[in-house]
User: What shape does this take?
Amino acid sequence: MHPFDEAIDLRASALSQAPHEFTGATHPAYANMVGPFGGTTAAQLLQSAMLHPERLGEPVALTVNFAAPVADGDIRLVARPVRTNRSTQHWIIEAHQAEGVVATATAVFAVRRETWSDVEAVMPANLPEPDALSRMPVKGMPAWPQRYDMRFLEGAFPTAFDEQEQTHSRSTLWVRDEPERALDFASLAALSDSFFPRIYIRRRRRAMIGTVSLTTYFHADRALLAQVGTRHVLGVAKALNYRHGYFDQTGELWSPEGQLLASTHQLVYFKE
Amino acid sequence: MHPFDEAIDLRASALSQAPHEFTGATHPAYANMVGPFGGTTAAQLLQSAMLHPERLGEPVALTVNFAAPVADGDIRLVARPVRTNRSTQHWIIEAHQAEGVVATATAVFAVRRETWSDVEAVMPANLPEPDALSRMPVKGMPAWPQRYDMRFLEGAFPTAFDEQEQTHSRSTLWVRDEPERALDFASLAALSDSFFPRIYIRRRRRAMIGTVSLTTYFHADRALLAQVGTRHVLGVAKALNYRHGYFDQTGELWSPEGQLLASTHQLVYFKE
Assistant: This one.
């Protein structure tokens, strides 16, 4: 079993007792410096709706708010479909630990129809293939970056915090699960949180950081995800603004063929 | 009283009965074709947390999911602070009408500290002042665009749905409340939803549309909002992707002096 599948493996509570409850746990393979990688937590929250017997369609939007540090151990997920329409469904999801709520999420699921479609954003062009680039060294890093094969074209994690401020924080990289795993909604949600904090790229300076809110729009449907399979996707991320303890990040995840799989945005707390 | 203040005027329920409940109503001055302008609904959801006696700090992130059409009339708002930390607070907010949940929101509030700050996004340069541009004609439009003074530099609402597809959907405009009103968090939340649907700009073709999820990151604090006062702010919006019934929009709201007040993103349902 792939460690990511282990990490998002949830057990449903007996329906008669608590119809909307699932139990999961943090996984050592996706540990961060302290507690778990937020991407796995986001994927668990999404997965609780995916597994829910009343689920309609596929996810189109997910917002995860990280309310408190997640402790290593069990997580109780409460997923409520608060409104189900003909082709859309709205969810409120909470993640609880002993101490209280550690994360919340809202999600929109939908049954999609084929329509006129077009990519208006511009994918970086003339990129070398992943095979032509080296994988980012992960020695000495927490567990979670070791679960990704990242090959940077620009904006790599700084090799030293030399405090040489850069003109921008943009990163462009090929990324996939390590070991390989076919892309699905849960792993796309986790990938949305896999960009290193923009302030490290920009400032090359140590800082305490923590994502407070993460939004992902899933442009890909199941068929498009299947086309990507286990290959690398192209990630692009940058910050727009840093001010008084918070900065934002906007990112894109592209298929090798130039389809925008997801656009993703987050707001991050920082303290230098 | 300004019509926007009337629109976001909420009555708290008697604390002993329902500590987290407020009642508001749709306002005819912000009517859309059918039901209210989504920006006012977003502002009401935010306002229910702003008015809550347990509120900590100022909003930094807001996500509103539009779950069902809002009917003209009363809206019951239930705002729960699900986690309060030392300097951050996490909210789940629901808007109810007779039929059930019509919108949900999550919000992050925070007590900010001064830190290193920088705008990394680029504000369009060498723009004419609002006074040098004409206000968008609002004759024949629904009520809500009449409550904004919009002065377009590019990407105006099409004067005819001539089905001449454009190469992009970008809009740049000066915008303020009409009549003038000093900018605050509630009006910034509403402004985040004031960009016309990108597909109209791009396709110049009639379509049914409906925002399903709207996220706003508030980079401005109260002091910066006060500096803007009643003046126009610069809005910039574009779509990234249209696919199988949904497109996204990413937008920025800038102070005249070049501070990024908010970055805002939404996912929109469409059917041509």
Q: What stands out?
A: The longest strand of chain B covers residues 260-271.
